[in-house]
Amino acid sequence: MTKPSGNSRSLYANPTAQVLFAVAAAIVLGYLHPPAAIAMKPLGDGFIRLITMIITLIIFCTVVTGIAGMEDMKKVGRVGGKALIYFEVVSTVALLIGFIIGNVTKPGGGMNINPATLDAKAVAEYAGAAKSQNVPDFIMHIIPTSVVDAFAKGDILQVMLISVLFGFALSAVGPRCKPLVDLFDALTHAVFGVVRIVMKLAPLGAFGAMAFTVGKFGLASLGPLLKLIAIFYLTSLLFVLLVLGIICRLCGFGILRFLRYIKDEIVLVLAVSSSEPAMPTLMEKLEKLGCSKALVGLIVPTGYTFNTDGTGIYMTLAALFVAQATGTQLTLMQQLTILAVAVLTSKGASGVQGASFIALVGTLMVIPSIPVAGMAIILGIDRFMSMCRATVNMIGNGVATVVVSRWERELDGATLQKNLAAQ
Fold first, then answer.
1. CA 101 to CA 107: how far, in whole Å?
2. Is residue 328 part of a domain?
3. Is 145 a member of any domain?
4. CA 338 to chain centre
5. What is the C-alpha to C-alpha distance for residues 55 and 39, in angstroms, rounded to an integer?
6. pLDDT attached to residue 351
7. Which residues of the chain have pLDDT under 70?
8. Residue 81 sits in a domain of what CATH number?
9. Structural domain contains residue 177
10. How many CB atoms lie within 10 A of CB 48?
11. What local confidence, expressed as pLDDT, does residue 1 receive?
12. Distance of alpha carbon 316 from alpha carbon 351, whole angstroms
């Protein structure tokens, strides 16, 4: 019997190849046998839950040990300030790009859909979840009612607040808390060990999530809205290659080489339509690239809330699509209002599939002339849109971490190029 070659064995063991094969098999199953494909949903949901159950623990341990190990406490505030400025500028650029592309290409033009014929009940539950959010409410939400509650709910921002405060406290106490810092550091390694075990199930999770998507909504559902999907995917690709590409080039590395470095995470996020499952391995890869544990722990989790580039493109583009498809004429002031509101509502719309759709419903509610029921038009393809926006969100956060690390002179250009090439 002929033994498989070394290349074949390495292909079988390659995580990217495994997930791609699982996705292909899921699409075939979803197309040929939708009921069986829909029944695969627990595989995807279970995998995502396995990852999300330890994300808060990873964030807590990484941030606490990183800050406690920093000699310069001013650096934490400086890094956080730079990151927030970067997040706001780049995510606003993403919103503007979606706004411009929506006006130029007019993806909903000519559809002439009567809002009265749409199923408003399909959007009602999202409208209920999309309550108006102001700055004080957003800030108060960051403060948990208790430490246990923050971890129980898995709220990333609340866990970040607790972690930063705890890290500062350990640093202020000094040597007396060193055993505790060492314990958290050891726990971090143990938790990442758990992640590596769970990630072996990634092909199963990708298979379940993709099979459900194709079986539930069907490839035929893409037809009438193919123009919107194509424009969104193309716009997102251009944003990554041009906008993020220019940012990367200015910081001494190439976007294509960075994308190859995180290809496993890209494939996984595309398959499960959520960026959270890729967070642990993305953080680990960024540390291997040369970014400090403290900086990675601060920027990546915060970026999942504040740096939502894919969501930004989606929200302004989809909002204009709904208006155009229902024949709603928007004045320039109304369009600028949508843009301004989306700057706030897009924050926090990352990670979980469907959060961006809720945020978009909340944005449209500020313009009464746009029928919220019009969101039913794109409800059926939202899962396909989510694949792209979650991937762009994840890529944007990876780039942001490397960029701030370069600004902080933690990572020199030669070391960065060497580490990227080594992979």
1. 9
2. yes
3. yes
4. 22
5. 27
6. 47
7. 1-13, 70-73, 114-135, 137-138, 220-224, 347-356, 372, 380, 423
8. 1.10.3860.10
9. yes
10. 21
11. 45
12. 19
CA dihedral over 277, 278, 284, 290, signed as positive or negative? negative
Q: How far is CA 242 from the centre of its chain?
A: 19
d(CA 128, CA 365): 11
CA atoms within 13 A on the CB side of 315: 40
pLDDT of residue 304: 81
Write the single-letter amino acid at 171.
Answer: S
Q: Please calculate the CA angle 325-328-330 and round it to the nearest 5 degrees.
A: 120
How far, in Å, are 64, 84, 210 from residue 146 at the CA level? Answer: 18, 26, 37
Spell out the residues 6+ positions from residue 114 whose beta carbon is closer than 8 angstroms to its own: 326
All residues at 6 or more sequence positions from 108 whose CB lies less than 8 Å from its CB, including other chains: 228, 320, 321, 322, 323, 324, 325, 326
- Alpha carbons within 13 angstroms on the beta-carbon side of residue 295 total 28
Which residue type, as a one-letter code, is found at position 46? Answer: G
Burial of 94 (C-beta count, 10 Å sphere; 0-12/13-18/19+): buried
Are the C-beta atoms of 266 and 391 separated by less than 8 Å? yes
* Domain that residue 129 falls in: 6-422
Q: Is residue 318 packed enough to be buried (19+ CB in 10 Å), middle (13-18) or exposed (0-12)?
A: buried
1, part of any domain = no
Backbone angles phi, psi at 385, to 5 degrees: -70, -35
Q: Which residues contact 331 (CB under 8 A, 6 or more apart)?
A: none
Render pLDDT for 116-151 as a digit per residue (tens, 0 to 9).
665 555 565 555 555 555 567 667 777 888 888 888
Cα–Cα distance, 313 to 239 (Å, whole number): 9
pLDDT at 410: 81
CA dist 254 → 36, 241, 279 (Å): 43, 10, 22
pLDDT at 423: 64
pLDDT tens digit string along 329-339?
888 888 888 88
Query: Which amino acid does the sequence have at 77?
Result: G
Q: Which amino acid is at 169?
A: A
| Alpha carbon distances (Å) from 162 to 142, 308, 316, 342, 400 | 10, 23, 33, 28, 23
Count of residues making up the chain = 423
The reported pLDDT for the residue numbered 203 is 86
Distances (CA, A) of 19 to 12, 13, 23, 121: 10, 11, 6, 36
Q: Which residues lie below 8 Å from residue 220, measured CB to CB, with a gap of 6+?
A: none
Domain count for the chain:
1
